[in-house]
Amino acid sequence: MNLMRRLLFGILLPLLMIVAMWRVGRRAVALEIAVDDASPAGLERAARWDGQNPDFPYMLALYHGDMPGILNLDRARHYAERATQLSPFSWKAWWQRAQLDELAGSVDAAERDLRRAQSLDPRDPAINWRLANFYLRRSEFESARTYLSAALEGDPSLQRPAVTLLAKFGVALSTVDAIWPRDSDSRLTLIDGLMRERRQFEPQALHAFLMRQWNGLMADRTDIPLPDGSPFIRYLLDGNWTEDARKGWIELAERNGLHDAPYANGENRVWNGRFDLPLRGGPLGWRISQANGYTISVKAHEGALRSGGLRVEFDGSRNINFNGVRQTVIVQPGTSYTFAFQARSDALTTDQGVYVEVVDLHTHQSLLRTDAVLGTTPWQHAMLTLSIPSESRLIEVRLRRRRSVQIDSRIKGIFMVDDISLAAMKP
């Protein structure tokens, strides 16, 4: 018996080795063919050499399903089915088959194939995303919810396209809220995405929804970097929800360690009017534009009140049309205000000095313009009356200098401003 076993082993082992080498050889030939010729003809030849490799029918299904000039849906479906037979545990093969089924109008088959793909890897964001898209295309929002929620939880990079997708298919905001992840970064992405897709929603409903999202972030004491929260404030300003914008700006600034008590309590409508806070920009902060020919900075203890003071230093190299310091200010329509500031200059040259201007952002008309400062002057206090038109809610405070028409026109010297305020006049 032992002798017989040894004889059989001696015969079978070489045969098995020959078969294995034959298979390896055919697979190597098939791969070489596919590398040298990745066309449909080359892949078909490779498949004949290695009929057990699912990659070849998978690629052939892609060619015949997508490639202009050789598009053949029946052949694509044939190869996709072959790929699933050879690789029944590959969700990508089942997803490809589902795509082709749907293109052929076999919606029920496509759904079965997609569910099979999802069952093979239930946590994979990509297949959950595809299954959610399938149900959204059929307006089966309830069926899409579970899969879209899983996709967004698994891959946050899908959140931005998800907002566009949900807006396109008219999914209700309440459904969007139920689907969406609850962390602060995801909520900020949702707010930003809905603002970009605002045309797809009824304005008042969208505004109420976004305010709930924002107030939820504020109630959670969420840390929101100024650049991340600023688009929401701009959205509120663009929609003329100015008091919501003002309140939101105060909350956002305080989240970033910026507290301006006179602005918060309404004493001064100008944010950081004494320049005691860092110049961080933002939709309702000071917007500083640096350019060749001048530098802008805040000098501690050099202001009119020995605190901060904004300094513009011109280097004498250019004839500048200067508009480098601006702030959008929220005002009450039809209200009269006292506008005040302090300014000084040091050896400021040319015939065109620096002045302060207030512009109505509704009509783009100048509401107030001070005399230009030139030469060397001490700190001087200016106080003017500013009347807001009945239709206006936003103005812009600017530091300006017009380009000179004279030959010797390259401005040099220093201009400083401090203690800018805008307060409603008492009746």
Describe this structure in words.
The chain has 427 residues and is of the alpha+beta class. It has a domain at 287-424: Jelly Rolls (Sandwich), CATH 2.60.120.260. It is built from 15 helices and ten strands. The chain has a five-stranded antiparallel beta sheet with strand order 1-4-9-6-7. Helix 1 (2-36) packs antiparallel against helix 2 (40-49), helix 4 (73-86) runs antiparallel to helix 5 and helix 6 (107-120) runs antiparallel to helix 7 (125-137). The longest helix has 35 residues, at 2-36. The protein is elongated, with a radius of gyration of 34 Å. The N and C termini lie far apart (119 Å).
Summed up, what is this model?
This protein is an alpha+beta fold. Helix content is about 50%, strand content about 20%.
Measured as a percent range, the helix fraction is 40-55%
CATH-defined fold name of the domain at 287-424: Jelly Rolls
Shape: elongated
Q: Determine the N-to-C terminus distance.
A: 119 Å
Sheet with the most strands?
5 strands, antiparallel
Low-confidence stretches: 15-22
The value of Rg in angstroms is 34 Å
Write the CATH architecture name of the domain at 287-424.
Answer: Sandwich
Counted beta strands: 10
Element order, helices and strands?
Answer: HHHHHHHHHHHHHHHEEEEEEEEEE
CATH homologous superfamily annotation of the domain at 287-424: Galactose-binding domain-like
Indicate the structural class. Answer: alpha+beta
Beta-strand share of residues:
15-25%
Provide the residue-averaged pLDDT.
Answer: 87
- At the first level of CATH, the class of the domain at 287-424 is Mainly Beta
